[in-house]
Specification:
Length: 345
């Protein structure tokens, strides 16, 4: 099969097109013919090296949409049919049953892993997964649109609904509207009944797109201090919930415009992994900071239901052919996208 791989950690030049053997499935697995795979910052971090061993040559890609190509002998009676449209859950547990998977906190399970991280992903013609991690989808959306759904919508749902428990009437600040997860968060915040959704962008051309998704106020962080603008917009009260995934570049300003007793949920560190924190401010203003790591199967199924019902929609920025994976990753690094960047396989 054709795949885009890297044989060692490093820059974009490490990515190469190669011919690899088609994956061999076990009795409880499903083989998926990949039709589209969306990019995530995780792809870049894994390529650069996160400090843990991975199989080399390595295939990145967590967001996989395609068709069933083959079904393992032990699960041939589970309803999977060759040609059926499916996605592979970005966070997989291989059917593990433990205290975490049964309570919906799959990402805390010792069995949890992410496609394209420690196991081979979707920058290829075929990918395999345990049958419980292969989920059927409808034909209302294209493969490129389905590939734009799983990781970002699941994570945003876990952050705003499960962790922050966003309530109707609250004010939300969503960082980086143009990112895939920002697009998802704006829609979920609006679906939850947020009274005001404020978001940030890095260029004026993204403002109208952010408002079309449901943002009430859009701040160009390159032209003004977003924390000061949030305080102005809220009469100095601040945002009840801040949706954070940038890191030290925005961390301190986020806390500066977080309302008293407000909650900040965070799932990423695109600008770096470390920051500082004023403990006095934390307890005096009674802030809550919550770490979030993807989500669980039950949450993903709810997201897929809402997508199928048209209450949430994926946003595709640009589609690249598989062989141009390096150009697609550069497009992400340049922050030129509004929505998901997708590889067509």
């Amino acid at each position: 099969m054709q795949a885009v791989i890297f044989r060692e950690h490093g820059g974009l030049e490490k990515l190469e097109c190669a011919e690899l053997p088609e994956p061999t499935i076990t009795a409880d697995q499903v083989l998926v013919r990949v039709r589209a795979c969306a990019l995530n910052h995780l792809d870049i971090w894994v390529r650069q090296g996160l400090g843990f061993p991975i199989e080399m040559p390595h295939i990145s890609g967590s967001d996989i949409a395609g068709e069933v190509a083959a079904v393992g002998a032990a699960v041939s009676n589970r309803g999977y049919k060759v040609g059926q449209r499916v996605i592979i859950a970005p966070g997989v547990t291989d059917g593990a049953v433990d205290e975490w998977t049964t309570s919906g906190w799959d990402s805390m399970s010792p069995a949890f892993d992410i496609m394209g991280m420690r196991r081979q992903g979707g920058y290829a013609e075929f990918a395999k997964a345990h049958h419980t991690d292969v989920l059927p989808v409808g034909d209302k959306l294209s493969f490129e649109e389905w590939a734009s759904v799983p990781l970002v919508f699941l994570t945003a749902w876990h952050m705003l609904v499960t962790r922050a428990q966003l309530k109707p009437g609250e004010t939300v600040l969503v960082q980086a509207a143009g990112s895939g997860i920002g697009c998802a968060a704006i829609q979920i915040a609006r679906l939850c009944g947020a009274a005001r959704v404020i978001t940030t962008v890095g260029s004026d051309d993204k403002a109208a797109k952010a408002k079309a998704l449901g943002a009430d106020d859009v701040i160009n962080y390159r032209q003004s201090d977003f924390a000061e603008e949030v305080l102005k917009l809220t009469g100095k009260r601040g945002a009840d919930v801040i949706f954070e995934h940038i890191g030290p570049e925005t961390w301190q300003k986020n806390l500066g415009c977080l309302a008293k007793a407000g909650r900040m949920v965070t799932c990423g560190a695109t600008s770096g992994p470390e920051t500082t924190l004023s403990i006095r401010s934390l307890y005096v203003r009674q802030h809550t900071i919550m770490g979030c790591y993807m989500g669980g199967r039950k949450e993903l199924l709810e997201v897929l239901r809402l997508i199928e019902a048209g209450k949430l929609r994926p946003v595709v920025d640009r589609v690249f052919p598989l062989r141009e994976a390096a150009a697609a990753q550069q497009h992400m690094l340049d922050r030129k996208n509004f929505g998901k960047i997708v590889l067509r396989v």
